[in-house]
Specification:
Elements: H1 12-24, E1 36-44, E2 50-57, E3 71-75, H2 76-82, H3 90-99, H4 113-118, E4 123-127, H5 130-136, H6 143-147, E5 151-154, H7 161-174, E6 181-184, E7 188-193, H8 196-215, H9 231-245, E8 250-254, H10 257-263, H11 268-272, H12 282-285, E9 290-291, H13 295-309, E10 323-326, E11 330-335, H14 338-360, H15 369-376, H16 379-386, E12 398-402, H17 407-418, E13 422-427, E14 433-434, E15 437-441, H18 447-461, E16 466-469, H19 485-510, E17 517-522, H20 535-555, E18 560-567, H21 578-587, H22 592-596, H23 607-617, E19 629-632
Parallel strand pairs: 5-6, 9-10, 12-13, 12-16, 13-15, 16-17, 17-18, 18-19
Antiparallel strand pairs: 1-2, 1-4, 2-3, 4-7, 6-7, 8-11, 10-11, 14-15
Helix pairs in contact: 5-14, 17-23, 18-19, 19-20
Length: 640
């Protein structure tokens, strides 16, 4: 691993911020909020008195992006007094840490604050370095063979007060002149120094030594690939996982070569069943993955696991797997949000690498089920998950929106994402992707391309719960006598035919939606009240409105509700070019501005307003509504 330190930072906290970010950018060291860092300094308090302070990473901050505000300042003398207490419950420890803060606005200090306090060095860095954990998670650990007297080894102790006490005891007994770090069994590496730059250099040096040792023993990996999975099969598995979890979930499929090789192992169930790399991973991945697809069997076994280890008064967490390993399907990762599924993916990808290396070195070994259970149900670990706040209404659900790049389609995407949905966006214009959004460049009139896009979306998010058909074209105003056949066919193809074909593709997935499928078609006021010169557009919107009515009749027994919205005078969309606006305003002998507000309320109807209505139609507010046509036009005397 390369030493990337390249800046001078005279201020100790600034240097700690810089060093923390260098560590945080290395996924082989920390993942998604893991690791913690600190620096000791002297500050002057309000009275002018110098105070020894420990600045330690605060809970909820990520090392890769941490700022000065992410460090909690605590009175060092008080922390060292606390470690002299023989025992301290976790809740009391966290309260004492908050009482030791110099700033009431600071984040909660890391649960490992006391570990940083007991080490006598000014700068302390702790990561979950894969290479070091590989050396500890063995039937016969190789830490001493690789590092010799450069590290003090601390057997596994659950993070918190007990670990700080044990570390202080062993460090005082075994540290020598050559000691530059502490290896925490099953938990990573701690290094220290006179400043953060020295602690960082020592960290990179020790990790590099471990990597070089392992590189000489890297296992050969067979080339492997995995076949595609039918979208409906994947959606059906997602539905079963959601049933076990008690709420909708995102399920992402991963078929990279490393995963394909790992799931092909004949001993997959045995090695995967030994547990995670570090105990704190258990809140993201559970203690073991599901091997195969027997979700119900996994949930039943989780219930027995809970019964074996639970304390009186403890409530069982949901028993759904967070990682699924299957010889034919590869790896599936599960989460309430797409980001949660991605975190599980990242963690287990590193787990695969460590397991395979460890198997070459004598056998991978994790913690006992009892130790993993204590971490999984540790209140301080569960608190990390609660930092995300309560889930939004559509959390765990997947929506597909056509015409997603602009206008009403984009507004629908934004409204659904704002309420927690993960969204697949289809459009001729590229829209990019984010963790909760998969943008795909697709011509909606190309049914084969739409089928492929839906399959990609299901591989990314696991299924479909919502479909919003928003793609549309508005051809130039033309009397029927002058209709262009090609323009007519194109308008019908985009506005009506593509929606019918999308319905055909989506139905098998929507009927598996955990909370029932929902479809909203963005039709138009022109369906109930057509305009002269808009024959193709009006006919296409009337056709798709009839499609909505038929689908509502056919799909109600599948728990899929289908509704339409009829916007009018939404002028911030791509349909309304300056030319079209001028034509339509002239037809009514109005100015463009007057034409824009030609409704009973004199209201401006925006894409965002339509997007909010579409999202609401997908909510429980309309759980008893299907086959409806909802105008959003400011009131139109031809429709009222």
């Amino acid at each position: 691993m390369e030493n990337l330190w390249a800046e001078a930072h005279p201020d100790p906290l600034d240097a700690c911020v810089y060093g923390s970010r260098l560590l945080g950018r290395e996924p082989d060291l920390v993942l998604h909020g893991g690791g913690n860092t600190s620096v000791k300094a002297v500050v002057t308090d309000l009275t002018g008195r110098p105070v020894d302070v420990l600045h330690v990473k605060g809970s909820g901050w990520d090392l890769a992006s941490i700022e000065r505000a992410g460090f909690a300042p605590l009175r060092l003398d008080r922390l060292r007094e606390l470690v002299t207490v023989p025992e301290m419950p976790d809740d009391r420890m966290m309260n004492e840490l908050r009482c030791a803060l110099l700033d009431a606005r600071a984040p909660d200090p890391s649960v490992e604050t006391l570990l940083h306090a007991v080490l006598p060095h000014p700068a302390v860095l702790h990561t979950h370095a894969d290479a070091v954990i590989t050396l500890t998670n063995l039937r016969e650990p190789l830490v001493e063979e690789v590092f010799g007297d450069r590290v003090v080894v601390v057997p596994y102790v659950m993070p918190g007060f007990g670990l700080a006490r044990r570390c202080a005891e062993l460090f005082a007994r075994h540290a020598g002149e050559r000691t530059t770090g502490v290896v925490l069994a099953n938990h990573g590496l701690v290094t220290f120094g006179a400043d953060t730059e020295e602690a960082y250099a020592r960290h990179i040096e020790l990790v590099s030594a471990a990597e070089e040792f392992l590189a000489q023993r890297r296992p050969a990996r067979a080339n492997a690939s995995l076949p595609p999975v039918e979208p409906r099969e994947l959606a059906a598995l997602r539905a079963r996982i959601a049933d076990a979890a008690g709420h909708p979930v995102i399920v992402s499929r991963h078929t990279d070569p490393a995963t394909a090789a790992f799931v092909a192992r004949p001993d997959l169930a045995e090695v995967a069943g030994r547990g995670p790399l570090t105990p704190d991973h258990v809140i993201r991945t559970k203690s073991v993955p599901l091997v195969g697809r027997d979700v119900e069997g996994y949930a039943a076994e989780y219930g027995r696991y809970f019964e074996r280890h639970a304390r009186p008064g403890l409530t069982m967490l949901d028993p759904a797997p967070r990682v699924v390993l299957d010889a034919e399907w590869g790896m599936l990762t599960v989460g309430r949000r797409a980001r949660d599924a991605d975190i599980a993916r990242d963690i287990y990808a590193h787990t695969i690498d460590v397991i395979e290396r460890a198997e070459e070195l004598g056998g991978y070994r994790a913690l006992s089920p009892r130790e993993l259970f204590e971490m999984e149900y540790w209140e301080l670990e569960q608190a990390k998950l609660r930092l995300a706040g309560p889930p939004a209404e559509f959390t765990g659900e997947v929506a597909l929106v056509t015409g997603a790049a602009s206008g009403i389609g984009r507004a629908c995407v934004e409204a659904l994402r704002a309420r927690g949905a993960s969204v697949i966006g289809l459009d001729l214009t590229p829209t990019g992707s984010r963790p909760d959004y998969l943008g795909l460049q697709v011509d909606v009139t190309d049914t084969v391309a739409v089928e492929a896009a839906v399959a990609r979306g299901v591989e990314r998010f696991g299924g479909l719960d919502v479909v919003v058909a928003s793609a549309g074209v508005f051809p130039a105003t033309t009397p029927i006598a002058d209709l262009d056949p090609e323009s007519w066919r194109r308008t019908m193809a985009v506005n009506a035919d593509s929606t019918a074909m999308l319905f055909r593709v989506a139905h098998p997935l929507l009927e598996l939606a955990p909370r029932g499928g929902r479809v909203v078609v963005v039709a138009s006021k022109n369906a109930p009240a057509p305009g002269p010169g808009a024959a193709a557009y009006s006919a296409s919107k009337a056709a798709v409105t009839q499609l909505v009515r038929v689908a509502a009749l056919e799909w109600a027994s599948d728990n899929i509700r289908v509704n339409a919205v009829h916007p009018d005078a939404v002028f911030d969309t791509g349909l309304w070019t300056d030319e079209v606006l001028l034509q339509r305003a002239a037809h009514y002998n109005l100015s463009v501005e007057a034409y824009k507000r030609r409704n009973l309320l004199g209201a401006e109807v925006t894409s965002a307003a339509v997007g909010r209505l579409v999202a609401e139609l997908c909510s429980d507010t309309f759980a008893c509504t299907t086959g409806a046509q909802v105008p959003i036009d400011g009131g139109n005397e031809r429709v009222v």
